[in-house]
Amino acid sequence: MPLFEYEYRHTPFHTKLNPYSKAVLTVLPLLATLGMFDPIVLLPLTVLSLVFAVIARMPRDWHKLLITVTVVATGSRLILALFMGYAGYYEVLPPELTEKPILVNPIPEWVPWFGMMKLTWGGLIYTLGFNMRCFIAFYMVALFIYTTSPDEIVQALLKVKVPYKAIFVTLAAFRFFPVMTRALESIMNAQTLRGWVAKSKNPIKLAKQFLPLTIPLIGEVDKVVDEVTMSITSRAFGAGGGWTLMKEHEFSYLDYTVIILTIVASVYLFLAFFLWNLGKI
Amino acid sequence: MPDYVLEVEDLSVEYVTGRKPAVRKLFLKAKKGELIAIIGRAGSGKSTLLRTLNGIIPQYILASVDGKITYCGLNALEHETTKLAPHLGLVFEDPDTQIVSLTVAEDVRFGPVNLHLPREEVLKRMDVALDATRLKGFEERNPRTLSGGEKQSLAIAGVLALMPEILAMDEPVTMLDPLGKLRVLSIIRDLHKRRGLTTIITEAGGEIEAVAEVADRVVVMDNGTIMAEGTPREIFGNKEICEKIGLRPPQVTQLAHMMGETDPKLVPITLDEGVEFLAKILKGKKMRPLKGREVSPLRERNSVIEVRNLHHTYNLGTEHPVKALDGVSLDIYEGEKVAIIGQNGSGKTTLSYHLVGILKPTNRNAVVKVIGLDVTKADSLEIIKRINYVFQNPDMQFFSISVEEELGYGLKVRGLPEDEIKRRISELTEKMPAIKDYMDDQPKTLPRGIKTYVAAGSLLLLEPKILIVDEPTNGLDYSDIIPYLDFLRSLEQTVITITHNMEFVARFADRVIVMKEGKILLDGPTKEVFSKTEMLRETWIDPPQITKLGQRLSEFDLPPDILTVEEMYNCLKDVVRRGS
After folding, report:
1. Residue B272 has pLDDT above 50, yes or no
2. Residue numbers in B near A60 (CB within 8 A)
3. Range of A240-249, B9-18, B168-177 with top mean pLDDT
4. Strand partners, B328
5. Cα-flanking dihedrals φ and ψ of residue B559, to 5°?
6. Which residues of chain B lie closer than 8 angstroms to A150, CB-CB?
7. Nearest C-alpha of chain A: how many angstroms from B328?
């Protein structure tokens, strides 16, 4: 099952919503919650994005990857969270909570740098909030990609007068990612069978150990970019000075409902963030 | 005065990075409705020619181009590729790179939509293209789910929807399985005969029998120039020309040449002509039974691969599970040379991926043992001491700056000392003299034939007891195939190949395993398998032309299991001598 590739399914996201409403649904909540880290506020959106993915029948492999990426992204934040024991970092949460350690720090405070490290409830809440934001962002973008065909995207972009060159890049990117994930898988298989392993703890050595993957992959990227460019131009891309719109993206009641609800919810979240500190920690 | 739709005059193309011109002072004309086959080995300039015809060269691939290309009243060198596309449609070798959309319908209409045609016209053209390529009913399918032949048909449909006057196809059947080849060839024939489309196809030599059947004119290219040009009969039928330009004629033609027939008018070019030709000679004569290739009985050897009740289902737990292996059981014995054949999706690659541990069974009671090691649980470092896998595309593994480094990588990872690595590489080059002159070259820049040796060599240095070779002939010229085949046969190791090239199978394999829908349909000595025509037909596998010739002449007691032209000649020369 290739990742990041549209697949036709008979679901409301695939058949009932037009690309504009899906774009609104993807982008607006992300913008509205840009500064939010409160897990309680983000929880409904997290659940909602998962429910949407289930309704769109997103394949299991996508879920696995999205969750893995979320965990990896969170891992880096956990390190940052270890240094977030200072109450001044938090606008809303009380100091007794943000500074309360979860684990007793084995390193005395007077030890330079390491002494500052401690996992507090504040750090944990921050990490959890960040985790949820990553989850929502990855799931909503993946939902858009999975349920909207490149053709629909191109037609939608044309309708709003996006220049050809920008559309070309979009189209090439959609072709590029699935091809590259397949190429990376093949390269990894080939090198593993030559005994390739990446096991060094030294980052420079580790980077060097990845050369058997990165060099062939760069070669493939180069080849695929050339081939995609040649293919698209050989298929008369942009030759007519315009583009036949095969489908008028009419707005159904469902589209209007989705757009209105998303705008209302996003505006509310946006205002609430500034006026009542909603979502802040 | 013939009506030419394409005229190439004094064309020379030299790549910016090239050492010599890829095309040199070339003249070519195509009549309306003509089907021209351009034949030549890799690097002969045929793909460069096609890419220059539609403007990709020099617009996207930098090169200096001199001369004149005219079609549809346009000087092609003065127009952009996008403007030329509606007049000359180019289909690339690999359909995967040409498909730009994620449903069949969207992909076919991509061209007309870009021409900004009225919606009704776009739909009409899409309908015509789908009909011509037999893709009706596939409209909502994701191209990824199509077979190789269907994908190539889709690539052709996408170009046909532009309604070009000339259709150019770069090795359209090279990458396809037998059924895909039949499908695409029949579409080409149909477009040419029924729709009168001027068509140019290129071919590296592996599908020469098919070319001889469909082409009106054959153009042989080498070193950037046209070496010979004429009807298939004028070219293939003339033994001297074939020998002079190193061209392999169809197997029936080779046979006639070996039998001393030199008159091009009498030499058979197609299978039907071959049948007629031999029938005349064999009339009233009886054959003697012929001895096959000696193969030691399987049971006397040690089993090195044991597979029992192997199941594998892709997308398990989703709404679209794909059953790739359905209870496969088999043994492969020490030193055997085995070919696994079948259509794409029959389970060949899935099976071989299990043997090297890339895939794991999806059922609990499966057994996959390689020289006693349970590869379903073993670590890859343990597995590769026993078995390894040469992938189809060597570029997927090359990363070093020299062939020597590339060869030694696996040994270096194992921690062998430098002098030991050097010693082993030196031993390997004795067995593989073809790579000797390239040891300091960068692997990516090597000729395709040499790359194949380097890829195999880098794995052989790890001393596996079993080697799996995926599509060993892919991208190789015919002149490279035979030495590579001899090399693989000379190995002491057990060699398993996965291939669609039946001529290779006939020459290489002691044993053939035919797979269909995840199961083993046939398993036995090569001769026995190729003589089971009815069962092979079930999997659309087409035996070599020479085998089919023997089978078509069964009334003269010709054996149905002849695999090579030499074998057929040996079988016939006795009869012919007795007759004369």
Report:
1. yes
2. 317-318
3. B9-18
4. B310
5. -60, 140
6. 100-102, 106
7. 23
Residue window 392-431, chain B: list those with CB within 8 Å of chain A: 393, 395-399, 409-410, 413-414
pLDDT for A47 beyond 90: yes
B166 and B198 Cβ atoms separated by less than 8 Å: yes
Q: What is the DSSP string of B83-133?
A: HHTTTEEEE-S-HHHH--SSSHHHHHTHHHHHTT--HHHHHHHHHHHHHHT
- H-type helices in B300-402, by residue range? 348-355, 380-383
- Statement: residue A254 has pLDDT above 50: yes
ipTM of the modeled complex: 0.80
pLDDT tens for A53-94 read: 999 989 888 898 888 888 888 777 777 777 777 778 888 888
Of A151, A194, A238, the CB nearest to B397: A194
Asked if residue B580 has pLDDT above 50, the reply is: no
- In whole angstroms, give the CA distance from residue B198 to residue B186: 15
Residue B560 · residue B533 · CB < 8 Å: yes
Interface touch A244/B117, C-beta < 8 Å: yes
Distance of CA B443 to the CA centre of its chain: 22
Cα B558 to Cα A278, B267, B288, B294, B550: the distances in Å are: 88, 20, 9, 20, 5
Phi, psi (5° rounding) for residue B579?
A: -65, -45
Mark yes or no for CB contact A195/B413 under 8 Å. yes
Tell me whether B15 touches chain A (CB under 8 Å): no
Chain B residues 346-375 with a CB less than 8 Å from chain A = 353, 356, 358
Among B378, B348, B356, B366, which Cα is nearest to B310's?
A: B366
Backbone angles phi, psi at B163, to 5 degrees: 55, 55
Q: Measured between alpha carbons, how far is B311 from B324 in angstroms, rounded to an integer? A: 8
Cα nearest neighbour of A187 on chain B = B396
Give the helix, strand, coil percentages of chain A, each rounded to 5. Answer: 65, 0, 30
- In the predicted model, what is the mean pLDDT of residues A230-248? 83
Measured CA to CA, the distance from residue B365 to residue B329 in angstroms comes to: 12
Cβ contact (<8 Å) for B315 and A239?
no
Nearest to B85 among A171, A174, A239 (CB): A239
Query: ω before B58 within 30° of 0 (cis)?
Result: yes
Q: Does B462 touch chain A (CB under 8 A)?
A: yes
Please name which of B410, B431, B432 lies closest in space to residue B421, comparing C-alpha atoms.
Answer: B410
Residues of B whose CB is below 8 A from A214: 399
Q: What is the pLDDT of residues B426-460, one digit of tens each?
A: 999 988 888 988 999 999 888 888 899 999 999 99
Largest CA distance in chain B: 73
Beta partners for residue B29, in sequence order: B7
Sheet order of strands, B4-15 included = B23-31, B4-15, B63-71, B74-75
Of A196, A227, A236, the CB nearest to B86: A236
| Cβ atoms B329, B335 nearer than 8 A | no
